[in-house]
């Protein structure tokens, strides 16, 4: 299935061509061809096991870490192949950051959590680190809530704050793309609203790709939506189209709750 | 349009109930239009009076259906064909309610006319009423069958009504020019023809809504769609 969501107007950030992901002998995804627009929000929806998280993880080579996982096809970030020979997967993951379903702050201070990626990246200048930490926390809409207690443990933050801390940690290394795997599924409605508002804000500076089980959330936060089913990308279109008049019957069945 | 049922049977039931209530409202409106015309032709003032009162049922259904739509929007957040269905019903009740009111207006004119001697035998008005009712019935059937082609044929029929109206208007004009004491009755009959023409317009609206519900494309105001591009 080709991904044609009229993303023509926007610049393309990630270009995926004939991507196939297999675990051992079993093909989990693809082939998928899709272009993801820069500085927009693209949502991936579909039932459990449809391949959407596998697809997301292949965008920053997180699948490399899964035993027996094989990736074929081509993924380009700003025109450069991320699976090419000599490409450092760590550098790919710096440019394509990721936030997970369960917030996973390190058992360190708030400051050290955000500074972590910078320090392992070799940054030593304290003032520079402090500036980057502040900017990342501001962009994650957390600065005002934590600026007085940067030295306290991150584990003392609420669930919603922890998730925004993880977003700040991903932003600190100045990525171009932010991948989010169900970033709000463990949060209450208020904290969820904070994260969704933040996603809107982030899309001004970053390309955001989000996996969500919550279809209303996809409808609220995204510009484009791709529907995955049984390892195929069934339909990729503007979010308005997917939720008002999708062209594929399987998409229609899924978004209206007529499945299985 | 999908015909498969929702996994959530309660939601399925709510949508079915909404569809049934809209059809019920439609059949009441049909009844009002046909009764008001029978009251005219048979000079039955009592029937005209009953028809005026029957509109209360239509008004009650409008409120009930509006409430059902809001409930479904708030609780189910329908999308895609379900969303188009619910928003279509929200608009359709307004058209049906107006048709009911126009049927009441016909009955009111009938009451006035029945106090006078008949101006002429009624031929074209009942024909126009039949055509109008047929449009309403076809629009509702197209809704039930989710048949966009059938709805488009209803839209095409509106021209017949417009032609009939022009013809009736010309004829009544000659009666009025002939004899000034015909004016009171002729203007009442002309009003009835106008009401029927308006009812047919609402039936056309319904048919356009059906096309939107089925196809997801808006076919109203075809000329205005590209206006923004021209500038």
Helices, strands, pairings?
The complex is a heterodimer of chains A (260) and B (231).
Chain A: E1 12-23, E2 26-37, E3 41-45, H1 52-58, E4 69-77, E5 80-81, H2 89-95, E6 96-99, H3 110-120, H4 126-139, H5 143-146, H6 159-172, E7 177-181, H7 189-202, E8 207-211, H8 215-221, E9 224-229, E10 232-238, H9 239-244, H10 249-255
Parallel strand pairs in A: 3-8, 3-9, 6-7, 7-8
Antiparallel strand pairs in A: 1-2, 1-4, 4-5, 9-10
Helix pairs in contact in A: 3-4, 3-6, 4-6, 6-7
Chain B: H1 9-41, H2 45-76, H3 80-113, H4 124-145, H5 148-178, H6 183-215, H7 227-230
Helix pairs in contact in B: 1-2, 1-3, 1-4, 2-3, 3-6, 4-5, 4-6, 5-6
Give a brief outline of the structure:
With 260 residues, chain A is an alpha/beta fold. Chain A is 35% helix and 26% strand. Chain B is 82% helix and 0% strand.
Model description:
The complex is a heterodimer of chains A (260) and B (231). Chain A is of the alpha/beta class and 260 residues long. Chain A has one domain: 3-Layer(aba) Sandwich (Rossmann fold). Helices cover 35% and strands 26% of the residues of chain A. Chain A contains 10 helices and 10 strands. Chain A has helices at residues 52-58, 89-95, 110-120, 126-139, 143-146, 159-172, 189-202, 215-221, 239-244, 249-255; strands spanning 12-23, 26-37, 41-45, 69-77, 80-81, 96-99, 177-181, 207-211, 224-229, 232-238. In chain A, the strands form 2 sheets. Chain A has a 6-stranded mixed β-sheet, with helices on both faces. In chain A, strand 9 (224-229) and strand 10 form a beta hairpin. In chain A, helix 3 (110-120) packs parallel to helix 6 (159-172) and helix 6 (159-172) packs parallel to helix 7. Chain A starts with 11 loop residues before the first strand and ends in a 5-residue tail after the last helix. The model of chain A has no long low-confidence stretch (mean pLDDT 92). By secondary structure, chain B is mainly α. Chain B has a single domain, classed as Phosphate transport system protein phou homolog 2, domain 2 (Methane Monooxygenase Hydroxylase, Chain G, domain 1, Up-down Bundle), CATH 1.20.58.220. Chain B has helices spanning 9-41, 45-76, 80-113, 124-145, 148-178, 183-215, 227-230. In chain B, helix 1 (9-41) runs parallel beside helix 3 (80-113), helix 3 packs antiparallel against helix 6 and helix 4 runs parallel beside helix 6 (183-215). The longest helix of chain B has 34 residues, at 80-113. The two termini of chain B are 35 Å apart. Chain A binds chain B through residues 215-216, 219, 242-246, 249, 251-253, 255-260, and chain B through 2, 4-8, 11, 77-84, 215-217.
């Amino acid at each position: 299935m080709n991904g044609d969501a009229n993303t023509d107007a926007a610049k393309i950030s990630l270009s995926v061509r004939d991507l196939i992901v297999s675990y051992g002998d079993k093909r989990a995804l693809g082939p998928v061809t899709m272009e993801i627009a820069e500085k927009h929000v693209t949502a991936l929806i579909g039932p459990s096991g449809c391949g959407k998280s596998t697809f997301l993880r292949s965008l920053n080579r997180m699948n490399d870490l899964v035993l027996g996982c094989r990736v074929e096809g081509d993924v380009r970030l700003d025109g450069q192949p991320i699976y090419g020979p000599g490409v450092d997967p760590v550098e790919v993951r710096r440019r394509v950051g990721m936030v997970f379903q369960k917030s996973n702050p390190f058992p360190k201070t708030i400051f050290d959590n955000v500074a972590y990626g910078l320090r392992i990246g070799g940054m030593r200048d304290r003032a520079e680190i402090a500036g980057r930490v502040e900017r990342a926390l501001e962009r994650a809409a957390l600065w005002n809530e934590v600026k007085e207690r940067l030295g306290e443990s991150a584990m003392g933050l609420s669930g919603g704050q922890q998730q925004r801390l993880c977003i700040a940690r991903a932003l600190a290394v100045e990525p171009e793309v932010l991948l989010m795997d169900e970033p709000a599924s463990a949060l209450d409605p208020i904290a969820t609203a904070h994260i969704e508002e933040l996603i809107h804000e982030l899309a001004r500076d970053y390309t955001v790709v989000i996996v969500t089980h919550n279809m209303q959330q996809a409808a609220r936060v995204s510009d484009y939506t791709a529907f995955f089913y049984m390892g195929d990308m069934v339909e990729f279109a503007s979010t308005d189209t997917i939720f008002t008049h999708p062209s594929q019957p399987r998409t229609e069945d899924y978004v209206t709750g007529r499945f299985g | 349009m999908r015909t498969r049922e929702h996994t959530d049977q309660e939601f399925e039931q709510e949508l079915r109930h909404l569809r049934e209530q809209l059809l019920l409202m439609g059949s009441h409106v049909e009844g009002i239009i046909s009764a008001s015309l029978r009251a005219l032709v048979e000079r039955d003032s009592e029937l005209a009076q009953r028809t005026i009162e029957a509109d209360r049922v239509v008004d009650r259904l409008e409120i009930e259906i509006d409430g059902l739509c809001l409930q479904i929007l708030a609780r189910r957040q329908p999308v895609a064909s379900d969303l188009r269905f619910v928003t279509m019903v929200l608009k359709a009740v307004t058209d049906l309610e107006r048709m009911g009111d126009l049927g009441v207006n016909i009955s009111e004119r009938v009451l006035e006319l029945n106090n006078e001697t008949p101006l002429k035998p009624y031929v074209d008005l009942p024909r126009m009423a039949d055509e109008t009712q047929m449009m309403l019935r076809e629009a509702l059937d197209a809704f039930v069958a989710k048949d966009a082609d059938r709805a488009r044929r209803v839209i095409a029929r509106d021209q017949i009504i417009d032609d009939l109206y022009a013809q009736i208007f010309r004829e009544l004009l000659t009666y009025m020019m002939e004899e000034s004491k015909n004016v009171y009755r002729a203007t009442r009959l002309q009003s009835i023809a106008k009401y029927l023409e308006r009812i047919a317009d609402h039936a056309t609206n319904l048919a356009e809504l059906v096309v939107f519900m089925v196809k997801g494309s808006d076919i109203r105001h075809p000329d205005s769609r590209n206006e923004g591009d021209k500038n």
